[in-house]
Specification:
The chain is built from twelve helices and eight strands. It is of the alpha/beta class and 305 residues long.
């Protein structure tokens, strides 16, 4: 099985709302087209950047349906389907498979501190609901409250549909650990770098692709970063990573949620209003317009490197 379709830049897709705060099919299609035109490898739909934890099952189905309608098989689509219960997660997994996504992905259940055997059963039950679809584990312990440990990973590697890990833990060595462990188990997998600020480091230590929450604002920058790494132009990559990080730090300095800022920056880039964010996330506050403008200017500066 070729995993090449997963190796590259895959933006974490933003939730697109209409003026009343409902999922907008038209704006979702517009964002999909924008990112495809920029040359991304694929899209990661329904994850943290998609505000999934604040969406209903129907919201998430509508978003994925619109993305798939627009993509038309031109790029790789990974659907994050985890809910905080197995029933809804399996429903989303079946739905994603029916639409023909390339892979599904899941975080672990949050809130209750479940033992590893419960987490493994949760993940395997979801995978079984989409038996013809690749499966990616999403490791983000700082938000989920539980980490993908070597013992849990070893258990999940018994599932032949597991083909990758989206690693958003901050210790960069985790990427190397997952790559090494999979090889020792005789498995070929893709590890995706999660923290955007360490993309270069993640790629150098073993990640073969990246899934990131700020890629959508500046997809060209991360595509260029990936190209520089493949060519071995590491000093230029370091310079461009610094420029991308400055955009990220600026967006995070707003009072409003970073994804509200990201969508506002995209509006300046595309002329399209993608809406704000779903409460209780905070939209732009007074004074954030200045930060949006600065972030936009930093994106333009990074594009010139």
């Amino acid at each position: 099985m070729s995993l090449e379709k997963y190796k590259g830049i895959i933006p974490a897709f933003y939730a697109c709302y209409d003026d009343e705060g409902n999922i907008s099919k038209e704006r979702t299609i517009a964002l999909t087209e924008f990112l495809i035109e920029k040359g991304v490898k694929g899209l990661y739909v329904g994850g943290s950047s998609g505000e999934c934890i604040y969406h209903s099952v129907q919201d998430r189905k509508e978003t994925l349906e619109a993305v798939m309608e627009a993509a038309k098989g031109r790029i790789t689509i990974i659907a994050h389907v985890a809910c905080n219960n197995t029933k809804d997660s399996c429903e989303l997994a079946r739905h994603a498979e029916s639409l023909g996504v390339d892979a599904i992905a899941t975080i672990p259940p949050i809130y209750f501190r479940l033992p590893e055997r419960a987490i493994a059963k949760y993940w395997n039950d979801i995978s079984a609901a989409a038996p013809n679809t690749d499966y990616i584990i999403y490791n983000i312990p700082q938000l989920a409250g539980v980490a993908l440990t070597p013992s849990l990973f070893e258990e999940m590697l018994k599932n032949p549909r597991v083909i990758g890990v989206k690693n958003s833990s901050m210790p960069i060595q985790d990427i190397q650990m997952f790559v090494r462990q999979a090889k020792m188990s005789g498995r070929d997998i893709v590890v995706f770098n999660g923290p955007d600020e360490q993309f270069v480091g993640g790629r150098l230590i073993g990640a073969e692709g990246g899934i990131g929450g700020t890629y959508g604002v500046m997809p060209e920058v991360y595509i260029r970063l990936d190209e520089l790494i493949r060519k071995g132009e590491f000093e230029k990559a370091r310079e461009l990573q610094d420029a991308a990080n400055e955009v990220t730090y600026t967006m995070c300095s707003a009072q409003g949620n970073m994804y509200a800022v990201a969508k506002a920056v995209l509006k300046l880039r595309t002329g399209i209003d993608f809406g704000s964010v779903r409460a209780p996330l905070l939209g732009l506050a007074e004074g954030d317009e200045r930060i949006v403008q600065k972030a936009y200017e930093l994106v333009e500066k990074a594009l010139a490197i």
